[in-house]
Amino acid sequence: MSTNYYHQFLDGSPCGLPAGKVVCVGLNYAAHIQEMASQKSAEPMLFIKPTSALTSLASPLLIPQGLGSVHFETEMAILIGQELNQCSEPDVLPAIGGIGIALDLTLRDLQKQLRDVGHPWEKAKGWDGACPVSAFLKPDKITDLQNVSLSLEKNGDIQQDGNTAQMLTPVIPLIAYMSRFFTLHPGDVVLTGTPEGVGPIVPGDSLVVALNDVLSVAVTDIRYRSSS
Ligand code: ZN
User: Fold this and answer.
1) What is the pLDDT of residue 31?
2) What confidence category does residue 1 fall into, taking pLDDT thresholds of 50, 70 and 90?
3) CATH-assigned architecture of domain 2-224
């Protein structure tokens, strides 16, 4: 399956950055650590989704069938605009190329199985289409990265209603930390963790995923992907 995904800006202006890898942080909101019955880690817990996980939040979401529950995790997404390699914190803000909202889709049952035997999570987090992202806002549309509301409504009910003020590691030190391990290239995307309220999606569900009052995406077409 190829997704034909490319980055877009919400205002329709050309983006031109290539779709890259997605560097993610787990357990970055205390209340989500509680609901997952996980432990707070001393340093940010990082993982990567491949480019092939990227898909548009506005197109049909194709989810795997027969691998257990698929959970949504609503996360602020940062589009990297300039290379960051072992950078310091003041280097981060000028390198941010856009801000959007993403779903860190997770095969929750498979993740638990893999965790229980100490195996990596890639199959649970990195499958084709496991990272639907919105079009991006220009960075100047968000005045304070640590005061951004994130919400997800499923079938008319609010499931997630968080704020980036609740992050354990804020965006700027998080991205600087990531760049110590992984060079971030223009077109890479950083996912910043999910607040509490994660839950399952199945075909037929409809979602509204929103960031502040400036970005809102209705997801009305969730399907099982064909198994070919
Ligand atoms: Zn996540």
Assistant:
1) 86
2) very low
3) Alpha-Beta Complex (3.90)
pLDDT tens digit string along 179-204?
999 999 999 999 999 999 999 999 99
> Residue 177: in which H helix or E strand, if any?
helix 171-181
Q: What's the 146 CA to ligand 1 centre distance in angstroms?
A: 17
141 C-alpha to ligand 1 centroid (Å): 24
Reading the block at residue 147, the tokens are 């005061």
pTM of the predicted model over 0.90? yes
- Apex 45 CA angle, 41 and 50, nearest 5: 165
Asked whether 202 and 222 are in contact (CB, 8 A), the reply is: yes
Spacing, Cα 99 to ligand 1 middle (Å): 16
pLDDT above 90 (res 38) = no
Q: Which protein residues have a CB closer than 5 Å to ligand 1 (ion)?
A: 73, 104, 194
For ligand 1, the distance from its centroid to the CA atom of residue 125, given in whole angstroms, is 9
Ligand 1 centroid distance, CA of 131 (Å): 10
Q: What residue segments make up the domains of the chain, in order of their start?
A: 2-224
